Amino acid sequence: MRWAFMKISVAGTAAISIFLSGIAATATASIVVGIVHREDFAYAKMMKNAFEMAREEINRSGGINGQPLQLAFSDDKGEPTAGEKAVEALVREEKAVMVVGGYSSSNTLQMAYAANRLDTPFLVCTAADDRITQHDLKNIYRLNPPACEYTKGLEELLLDRVRPKSMSIVYENSPYGIGGARRMMGFCRENDIKIKGIHPYFKKGATPAYLEKVLNPVRQNQPDAIFMVSYLKDAAMLVCKAKELKRSEQVSAHPRGQDGGMGGPGTTTGVEVPSCGVVPSPFSAIRGFLAAPLDVLP
Q: Region (Disordered) spans which residues (predicted)?
């Protein structure tokens, strides 16, 4: 699994190798990689530790072609303006040759534009907003698939085993949620599956009582299947509430893990939905995508 993930990182960042080799002549004693990092998230300490562990292992192995790797962190606060300032600080003040990170879809697009203006490669490692790589920004790359690709992991299962004639779609009203919901809407149209309801909800106000109100129209519409796009905590509440509907429709949760990766297997009533993807430990993943694009430096 570790090497499979590292291969993805190599493919996703091969294009910036030319840029990095071009700046090698002016590189200082250390190669600085900037990390945009949201410090108020529960995963923040874990992810920062993973980056530092990767740096230590790379440097113990001789660095990047003999030059030590140095990391510089900047808090993007999950907000567009703060994210832009974080990228600018890493490039202009810390002299980062590339930027890595981008957890929240809510501000990563703005950070991508900032990095592109500064002509600095930005490797997005978790944000799933489809638009990040749809704007032809030459310096922007992504390690993970966009939100529209996540949904594809369920499509074969839905066609071969569930075979719904109708569906309701519940999603968080965010770039990540909208991307997944839009893809499922297209899938339903392509396969003559009637969409009985489209129900967005606001993540910040997600409580069991609120989500029960969101699901009430689903009870009335009586679809064959319910497709949900949400982060892991909300997904757990939604599945529990959907099961309380005490109906026989298939309940398909499409969670995204709080650690920035996809959640575990979705849960259905009567059918087990296989995981759309499994992310290895943060350390092995980060070590791979920090080392891969920099190994080409002369």
A: 249-271
Q: What is the pLDDT of residues 223-252, one digit of tens each?
A: 998 898 887 788 888 888 877 765 544 555
CA distance 90 to 197: 44
β partners of residue 168? 197, 226
CA torsion 40→46→52→55, rounded to 10°?
-120
Same domain assignment for residues 125 and 154: no
CATH of the domain at 153: 3.40.50.2300
> b/e string for 19-41 if b means 16 or more Cβ within 10 A?
bbeeebeebeeebbbbbbbbeeb
Identify the domain containing residue 71 by its residue range. Answer: 2-144+280-294
Residue 123 to residue 13: CA distance in whole angstroms: 7
272 domain-assigned? no
pTM above 0.90, yes or no: no
